[in-house]
Write a structure and sequence with these properties.
single chain; 383 residues; mainly alpha; 17 helices
Amino acid sequence: MDSEPRRRRLPELTSLRFFAAMGVVIYHLQAMGITAGPRAYQRLAGIGYAGVSFFFVLSGFILVYTYAGRSLTPRVFWRARFARIYPAYAFSLLLAAPGFFKGLHTVPLFSWAANHLALACFLVSAGLQAWHPLAALSWNPVAWSLSVEAFFYLLFPALLLLIARRPAKQLALVVMACWAVSVGTGLSYVWLKPDGISAAAAEQVDMLFWISVLKFNPLVRLPEFLAGMAGGLLLVNGNRNSIRPVFLIVPGLAAIGAVIWLQGTVFPYPVIHNGLLAPAFLAIIYGFALQPAWGAALRQRILVLSGDASYSLYLLHSTLIVMFFFVWRGFHMAFPLAMVVYFAGTFVLALVVYKFLEGPARRWLNPKKIEASRNTFRAAAPA
């Protein structure tokens, strides 16, 4: 390993994971009727689901940053990914189990699982639920994205070999082609209406076949991961001083702001959900990976720790002991008190799981001798 490239850690990107996870959290808080804040908050929360797209892009970017130019044995890589992902994933299923089995015949989200319980349990336990559109939201609904990530991990060693030596112009074309495919699939749904509903109505339903294919199928979401990989290679192979971070980060943030403001009118839900913001996310990720001095706030320990715990935060925030508790017990408070109380409880739980389950389980399942270099940033999971 000594002859292999040693890359600096990127704590800024760890911190960004926390903000993306919070986007998903506040989206679900609003969707479940737990919070209903001022109009600006509602608009921000309204596209919080796009945080998952951010994770897909970030995952491809960081895996490339961690492994490009290094010895990569697929078996070792897959073992490391399993050790990183599955312990907290399994724990989230344990916590979600009471709510899932209690709600089988009362929660519409679980209607398919109620009629195919054995299959649903197998698919979710094996991380395969995203391949069946109507099973994707079974048990712990947010875990569908881990099913998608598992597919990305399966393909990553081969994909890296395929694009690792591409010149910068081809990598830029890969990014744009991936974006075009993602936007094209969303627009196809808007235009064709395969479920017989409008794009606006698609946000209000979860159990229709084609909108579920669009949102959850790993093949449909693969372009976002590929765009992140191409962006990571542009960083690894390029001149870090060839572009100023501000010229990436500011336009990226501006694009996000425009989509927040114009959601539902210019930009329909299916298109936003599936990669519309992938280039903006990649620009922000790339910009902060260049580590501008004015980005020092993202290197603060509390934010980095929050980013480390964001994977557990993402997995646990919709389980019985957090979100479903508020809904089923009729526990409602005014904004912003509801958000503060909800987040504080969930975040503390996520920190505990990160410190006492994620880390120890990863070290036990994946001993140091086969871990990636500890001098690199840990490859991103969808947090």
